[in-house]
Write a structure and sequence with these properties.
Layout (H helix, E strand, L loop, with lengths): L6 E3 L5 E3 L5 E3 L9 E5 L2 H14 L3 E5 L8 H16 L3 E7 L6 H12 L3 E5 L6 E4 L3 E5 L9 E5 L1 H17 L1 E2 L14 H11 L4 H8 L3 H15 L4 H11 L6
Parallel strand pairs: 5-6, 6-7
Antiparallel strand pairs: 1-2, 3-4, 4-10, 5-8, 7-11, 8-9, 9-10
């Protein structure tokens, strides 16, 4: 079949159709067997995602910016899909933007998703939506000249495995939801804690910090112990690492 005016080309993957729900297989070669389908309508998105969720057998991995289902009804749909897979024994993982924790509706949703058996992590920046099912099928959004964000489904182990590797790199950099609070940790720092952190990052010892602030060395150690407990950190190094991810040095 020859490509028509409604078709486009993926690098190294042959022609694919832009007609909603239709698809062309890739040309023979390294990317043979790849099928790309595009669904421009929101109602089609939900249908396709339900179909893929119902068919998942081993794993379902998601990068979610949080914009695809922003209302309460949409969040319930997303929760039902994730929970259904988890109940069947599918390993379900999801990465969301850290900023959602500052929105009560979304923060509560993430906790419920976690309680439903989904491994949830947060990242400072989630660049796009991506879902990978069983390392065989990937879904992502695409730019549209007419507005909206069409859902693109890519089927085939070669490209899906590449998307799975991309997902894994984000997953490894993300923070488990269980280690986060509803807001940034620096918003909870008092004046003494900020001073201790500032001096410690400048290489001051506990004794020197105590002399600088006019407090005792046990006071300094008490501040650090409290911070480690709050951050669920096993060492000062880990506490410093977590604070460095969230605290602007200008705020200290």
């Amino acid at each position: 079949m020859q490509p028509d005016a409604g078709a486009g080309r993926m690098p190294g993957a042959g022609w694919f159709c832009r007609v909603p729900g239709a698809a062309f297989e890739a040309e023979s070669g390294a990317a043979a067997g790849v099928v790309v389908e595009q669904y421009p309508l929101p109602q089609e998105h939900e249908r396709v995602l339900r179909e893929l969720s119902d068919g998942a057998r081993e794993s379902a991995d998601a990068l979610r910016q949080g914009g695809e289902w922003t209302g309460a009804a949409g969040l319930e749909v997303a929760l039902a899909l994730d929970a259904g897979m988890a109940r069947r024994g599918v390993r379900v993982r999801a990465v969301y933007p850290r900023a959602l924790l500052a929105v009560p509706l979304h923060a509560a949703h993430l906790r419920r998703v976690s309680d439903a058996g989904v491994s949830v992590r947060v990242l400072d920046h989630v660049p796009h939506d991506l879902l990978v099912f069983d390392r065989q099928t990937a879904c992502l959004t695409a730019e549209s000249a007419v507005g909206g964000a069409p859902l693109v489904r890519v089927r085939g182990p070669l490209l899906a495995a590449s998307f799975a590797a991309i997902y894994e790199s984000y997953w490894q950099r993300a923070t488990p939801l269980s280690l986060t609070s509803a807001g940034p940790h620096h918003a909870q720092l008092d004046t003494r804690e900020k001073a201790v952190i500032r001096l410690m990052t400048n290489g001051y010892s506990d004794d020197r910090i105590a002399r600088k602030l006019g407090i005792t060395t046990p006071d300094v150690q008490s501040v650090m112990t409290a911070l480690m407990e709050r951050l669920d950190a096993g060492s000062r190094f880990e506490a410093g690492y977590k604070l460095a991810r969230e605290v602007d040095p200008r705020d200290l």
